[in-house]
Amino acid sequence: MGLLFSMHGIECALLVLHFLYRYIVVCRPEMKKYFESKLAIWAAANLVWGLIYFFIAIYWFGPTEGCYKYAGEAVRINLQRDLRKLPHMCILTYQVVNNSLLIYWKPTVGVAVVLLMMIATFIVMIFLGAQTSKTLKRGALSKKTITLQRQMLIALIIQVNRTDYVKAKFSTQVLM
């Protein structure tokens, strides 16, 4: 599960980096020097973002006895597998016990942190994409260059959606 989450974190960081690079190339070409000479720093930043996701998965989403008790029998009946031997199963955030809500705070905080990280990532991508698009609309570029830049921006936006679809499909296949 940690590897799956770290892969997601690195993919998100790479997509943000791609949006940032496109923004700099189109809107702030004088800042391009920060990309050309600092490749190792940008690669390290992506890996660090992935490591943060990895440690969230290990620390906050690791398997618990509550998860084993809650889903163990259903997994044994429906999948004919032992839940303790599956690498990735579920994140148990709450359970209703005797008509009262039992909240597992560790995974709940983990979900909140991951959601905040994802929201921050998407806000940055949306902001940079909007700024790039706005610059392309008012820029003094040739029609061919504007068309090419727009196509690349649309391809990047589609890539974000496609990446999320592939990750969701991969996650469900890991379970089976």
Automatic annotation (TrEMBL):
TM region(s), chain numbering: 6-27, 39-61, 109-128
GO cellular component: plasma membrane
GO molecular function: G protein-coupled olfactory receptor activity
SUPFAM superfamilies: Family A G protein-coupled receptor-like
Keywords: Membrane, Transmembrane, Transmembrane helix
Record bears the keyword Metal-binding: no
Name of the protein in its database record: G-protein coupled receptors family 2 profile 2 domain-containing protein
